[in-house]
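Design request, tokens follow.
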């Protein structure tokens, strides 16, 4: 194909309003983009201009793992984006490329290995049992989000991060404000600054620690001058925020299990399939609203007959990739026997979520514990009356009223 033909193949720019969606409904606008072609152009509610959007599984993996697409180049330029506070901060790990990105992640890698995650398994199980005990003692009805799904991931990520129990409430408040566009950019930015200040102090006092928690690992790395304090704080904030995404993901997961009882009954009767079933639920659940952070093409790249020019902004949709029929036969169906299941719910490439193993552990503990200990659990209100969060970047129920 000639250069002229490739350029003429550029699709029109489409508005993506990214409105709040009910329940586990898949974004109908994203569905249209997927039907129109593997590469399209979109304009999001904030920022300026337009950006490319890739939706096929193969292309998402290409863009996220190819050094011709970089995050750092987003600095100092206007890019169309989902939320007004999605402005890149210089040095933030989410906007770094290798080798700097690799260097930062290496500093906390021990906390997210199988051994590091196993270190918090016993304590996580104990915390979860305590929360379920309290919910059962109080009796029905209960808000499953308030009683279990919110405090549990907070306790687990704070344990891994080395945040004292007394500070968990502040962490939760800051995270909710940062992950919401409903309160305005100023409030979100203030919450992020307060969390930055907190971790700067915590990492500073852990500089001579030999602990295995993230704050101690970062403090030691700063003391060895392997990373700067600013880099350490940025990474800590990203990990803390990401850890609480489990609340919303598990909220959608249990909303699904409570509205499709046949799925829950199968998981009760066949506990051996739970790990594989949770992977399938993670693939299917529309866990976020629209898209996250953009990349910039560092040179001209052709993707399916469309030329993406050097300097163009590019987004990937992990949600769309997880519904690619070429990779996942009958993708809209939840199939607990699906194998292989190469979903990209935790991303792909250098920016793959380091907490993926931890999130799987938490999901397995939540599903196993709640299905086994509260076998009669059901929604206390009609499904359509379950309130979902407004303006949330990570989708999930505001409350999940249950009885048993």
């Amino acid at each position: 194909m000639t250069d002229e033909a490739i350029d003429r193949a550029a699709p029109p720019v489409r508005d993506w309003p990214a409105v709040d969606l009910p329940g586990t409904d898949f974004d109908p606008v994203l569905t249209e983009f997927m039907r129109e072609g593997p590469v399209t152009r979109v304009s999001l509610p904030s920022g300026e201009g337009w950006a490319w959007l890739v939706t096929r599984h193969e292309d998402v993996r290409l863009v996220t793992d190819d050094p011709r697409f970089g995050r750092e180049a987003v600095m100092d330029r206007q890019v169309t984006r989902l939320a007004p506070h999605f402005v890149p901060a210089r040095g933030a790990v989410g906007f770094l490329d290798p080798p700097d990105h690799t260097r930062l992640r290496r500093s906390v890698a021990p906390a997210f290995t199988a051994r590091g995650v196993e270190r918090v398994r016993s304590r996580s199980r104990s915390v979860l049992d305590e929360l379920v005990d309290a919910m059962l003692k109080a009796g029905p009805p209960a808000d499953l989000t308030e009683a279990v799904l919110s405090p549990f991931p907070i306790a687990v990520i704070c344990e891994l991060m080395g945040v004292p129990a007394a500070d968990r409430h502040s962490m939760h408040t800051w995270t909710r404000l940062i992950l919401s566009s409903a309160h305005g950019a100023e409030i979100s930015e203030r919450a992020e600054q307060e969390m930055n200040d907190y971790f700067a102090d915590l990492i500073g006092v852990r500089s001579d620690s030999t602990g295995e928690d993230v704050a101690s690992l970062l403090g030691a790395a700063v003391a060895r001058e392997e990373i700067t304090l600013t880099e350490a704080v940025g990474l800590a904030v990203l990990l803390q925020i990401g850890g609480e995404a489990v609340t919303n993901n598990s909220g959608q997961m249990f909303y699904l299990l409570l509205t499709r009882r046949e799925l829950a009954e199968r998981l009760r009767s066949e506990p051996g399939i739970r790990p594989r079933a949770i992977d399938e639920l993670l693939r299917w659940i529309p866990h976020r609203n629209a898209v996250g952070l953009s990349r910039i093409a560092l040179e001209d790249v052709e993707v399916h007959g469309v030329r993406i020019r050097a300097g163009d902004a590019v987004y990937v949709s992990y949600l769309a990739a997880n519904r690619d029929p070429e990779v996942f036969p009958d993708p809209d169906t939840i199939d607990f026997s699906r194998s292989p299941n190469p979903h990209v719910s935790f991303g792909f490439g250098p920016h793959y979520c380091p907490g993926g193993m931890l999130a799987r552990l938490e999901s397995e503990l939540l599903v196993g514990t709640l299905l086994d200990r509260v076998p009669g659990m059901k929604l206390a209100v009609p499904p359509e009356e379950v309130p979902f969060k407004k303006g949330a970047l990570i989708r999930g129920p505001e409350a999940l009223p249950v009885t048993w």
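Comment from the thread starter after seeing the answer: thanks! The CA atoms of residues 167 and 309 lie 47 Å apart.
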